[in-house]
Design a protein that fits this description.
- The structure is a single chain.
- By secondary structure, this protein is of the alpha+beta class.
- It has 2 domains: 39 residues, no CATH class; 90 residues, Arc Repressor Mutant, subunit A.
- Helices cover 46% and strands 15% of the residues.
- The protein is built from 8 helices and 4 strands.
- The protein has a two-stranded antiparallel ribbon. Strands 3-4 form a two-stranded antiparallel sheet.
- Helix 5 packs across helix 6.
Amino acid sequence: MSESKIEIKIGEIKFSGEGEQEWLSKQLDKILEKSEDLIKLAPAVANSKNQNHTIEHQVADFSNSSEISSQSLVSFLKSKNVTVAQVDKFLDTSIWLEAKEKKTRLKTSDISSALKNASQTKLNNPSDTLNQNVGKGFCEKDGKEYFVTQEGKDHMNV
């Protein structure tokens, strides 16, 4: 019998199979039977490149940010107790930079530079950390830049 290949994605769950056609067909049937449960377990994450609608998040308000901008990055991170957790460290550094420099858009390189300049440990993968914050609705991408959403600011109790 000939070998067959199949790849299927339901929500965020991918199944790839390679084998005899009969066996592969049975495996596919099992997955399709459970497809509704799989979608509930891991729904598809919106991808800005191929989605037809936009998820709108409110831009964070930093108009009363003097309390944040008056602190050093080290002090701000310590006050938020986020010196280790990568996702929160990224988010709080973004909040601090937006308040300190009055920027409305940031790049991941801004975060890396700010942490380096403050002699803080670097993030393992700033782009992945940004994507995790975007997935939670705490940041939103705008081309090659991003901004902190009000949800992100609220999450960090700022």
